[in-house]
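Tutorial handout. Part one gives the primary structure; part two gives the three-dimensional structure as tokens.
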Amino acid sequence: MSTHDALEIALQKELDLVLVSPNGNPPVCKIMNYGKYKFEQAKREKEAKKKQKTFEVKEIRVTPNTEEHDFNFKVKNARKFLEGGSKVKITVRFRGRELNYVKQGEDILNKFIEALEDIATPEKKPFLEGKNMFIIFSLNKA
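Part two.
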């Protein structure tokens, strides 16, 4: 059908002539209510976005020489964050000469792994990036 005939039919039905596939031979057009089509498309996208699962990453900072009580308090907070559906990033921050004691920081992160192993799993092993060493925990898939 010629473009002119298709436009006349669309005008008679008070609809729009929409180019669907411009690269086809011949180009493909469709007669439709374009405003309604765009509205339906936006509605579908909004619904798909609503169903998406998003993760919030909560960060807990410690130092290589964190005391036992503070450690237990931070573990309790990490549990609360994980049960709330967030991921938890534990960061050991080295300041000044503390960078010489990377092993202590790794030990603290390993203690976190042991303390949270019943509800969470680490995504990667602890690794050092600049003056920070961190690990990310996500809730177990049970």
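Part three, for discussion. The longest strand covers residues 132-139. The longest helix spans residues 34-51.
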